[in-house]
Design a protein that fits this description.
By secondary structure, the chain is α+β, with helices and mostly antiparallel strands. The chain is about 30% helix and about 20% strand. It is globular.
């Protein structure tokens, strides 16, 4: 017998009420139920950070949280950072610094940087490295990701009027 629970969850500012299997992870709910595939499925053990989302203001691995545990919560996925043709400062910084290679870790990395900069707009390199430490990247060597975080922090700290850039900026 499959046990179902009704959950109410806000994802990227949009409220969703769904009846879900008690064992479905937040990752599978986001990807399979809501169709938001920017959050990546990889290790499914909470080790790699590819599935990172921001849950009630905190960076979490969505593969190790049940959807029912997120009932009543607010979730930000990579899709929630951009609006239409506008991308977030952090996303633009990743592009500008060449911090993207295969791109698989990028959504989780971008959200890890966002979670860090939401709390600290003047992080040291050590703090940035600690902030992204739960996210594994096999391609970049992390230096360009750190540079992207520093660039984004500088722009955000200097009070850019918009936290978004048009694609092709």
């Amino acid at each position: 017998m499959v046990v179902k629970h009704e959950i109410n969850i806000t994802v990227n500012g949009k409220r969703h009420t769904r009846s879900v299997d008690a064992q479905i992870t937040l990752l599978d709910f986001i990807r399979d139920v809501l169709g938001l595939t920017g959050t990546k499925k990889s290790c499914e053990m909470g080790d790699c950070g590819a599935c990172s989302v921001i849950l009630d203001g905190k960076l979490v691995n969505s593969c190790i949280i049940l959807a029912v545990e997120a009932n009543g919560s607010s979730v930000l996925t990579i899709e929630g950072l951009s609006t239409g043709e506008n991308i977030h400062i952090i996303q633009q910084a990743f592009i500008d610094e060449g911090a993207i290679q295969c791109g698989y870790c990028t959504p989780g990395m971008v959200l890890a940087v966002k979670a860090l900069l939401d709390k600290n707009l003047t992080p040291t390199e050590k703090e940035i490295r600690a902030g992204i430490s739960g996210n594994l990247c096999r391609c970049t060597g992390y230096n360009k990701i750190v540079a992207a975080a520093q660039r984004a922090a500088k722009i955000m700290k200097n009070g850019s009027r918009s936290k978004e850039f048009s694609i092709g900026h």
